[in-house]
Write a structure and sequence with these properties.
Blueprint lengths: L1 H19 L13 H12 L5 H10 L26 H13 L23 H14 L6 E12 L7 E14 L2 E5 L9 E2 H7 L7 E6 L18 H9 L2 H10 L4 H4 L10
Helix pairs in contact: 5-7
Amino acid sequence: MKFFFALILSLSFSLVTMASTRGLSAHRLYNESYEAARDRHFFIHNLGVPFPALGKIETAGRYVSAERAKKPLKNLDLNEIPDVGSLADLENQFFYIRDTRFLATENANFPRRITWMYPDDGCYARAEVAKFELLNHHFPEPKKVFVFGNLSAASKNSPTGSVQWWYHVAVSYRVGDVAYVFDPALEPKRPLTMSEWHNLVGGNQTFVQYSICSHGTFDPAADCYQPRAISQEDAVWEQKSFLKDEWNRILELKRNPEQELGNNPPWLKD
């Protein structure tokens, strides 16, 4: 009876979690494998439908999720990523996405940026809001690049000095033969080349795989090629769900959130 009651509580918690978050969490527990983290998050997201069963449904329905589309870095066709022609233009858009405080809050005098200083989770929401703002700024549609594996990245914004993910995602453009990602959560100074990004997420230490997906692919469960896009309002709502986590993280690190999340982010001083 106690086990049954605990199961009901667990399922209720899953329902609350699903109601409060729309995307798949990227967080991987310490020493948890990619496969275990993936299956755990898909299990919660689909109310107990385990990941292998989900895969059969996808195959039958000609639905290819971002996770199913993954392949080694060497097998990617970088020509799928749009070429914007100018590195200077690319960098200008990167700084715009990094620095602009797009997100209205309860304090009308304190709008917030995308949550670059909370690297633990929410990459899917950061990438989605970045996508919308780039389009609003009249820049071409990006691609979303997903990376999967036992990912680990060093971060000054983590109390342990690093974060662990089973997947990570960022928007991507190309200049000539070189593909870049916009990921200020990992490197706030400049766009990263694909090989630099690969190394920063731990790809030089463990086997990782990649998917190049539509700009509308929200998270690893979404269709990589023909996704059902969400609205900008939903994307902003999802991103705002991480604002408190970012604020509390800066406090936890004994730094000043009013300064760093306001007009004096650390990358302007470093």
